[in-house]
Amino acid sequence: MSEITYVRGDATVPSVKGVKVIAHVCNDLGGWGKGFVLALSRRWPEPEAAYRAWHRERASNDFGLGALQLVQVKPDVWVANMIGQRGTRTGSKGVPVRYPALDTALSRLADHAIELRASVHMPRIGCGLAGGKWSRVEPLVTERLVERGVAVTVYDHGEG
Q1: Best CA proximity match to 118, nearest among 55, 160, 75
Q2: Mode of pairing for the β-strands spanning 77-85 and 118-122
Q3: At residue 108, what are phi and psi to the nearest 5 degrees?
Q4: Regions of the chain short of the pLDDT cut 50
Q5: Spatial distance between the Cα atoms of 133 and 131, rounded to a whole number of angstroms
Q6: pLDDT at residue 90, rounded to an integer
Q7: 120 neighbors 151 (Cβ within 8 angstroms)
């Protein structure tokens, strides 16, 4: 069985051949404007526009915790908007990340990645503004993606 590949770099520019899916965690409030999404929006307008429309029309679609939206940004690049975060702030109810929702979204992502014959690229999802712990997220990524044969690269941004 393969493992997650860890690299230092920018998850919005995966440097591998073939079809790629860039995965990240979104909140369930329709908010887009902090964290990794800023890097996505600097590169492509489509993921944000699709996410906002998905949220706006949520009464008639599957928008909610655990949902996945795939947005094609180049012939061989997709962005996976995964709803794995309740709200945006850490408070009395704990951190925003919801591990069961992230697990569900990753499982859905695996189905699509396998169908597209794509590799998956991501920052340490759910561990920035969502407040999660990689020690809880990594096993989900391994179980849902890697164990199903999907190549996963995790990008750590910056120095050191």
Answers
A1: 75
A2: unpaired
A3: -65, -40
A4: none
A5: 7
A6: 76
A7: yes
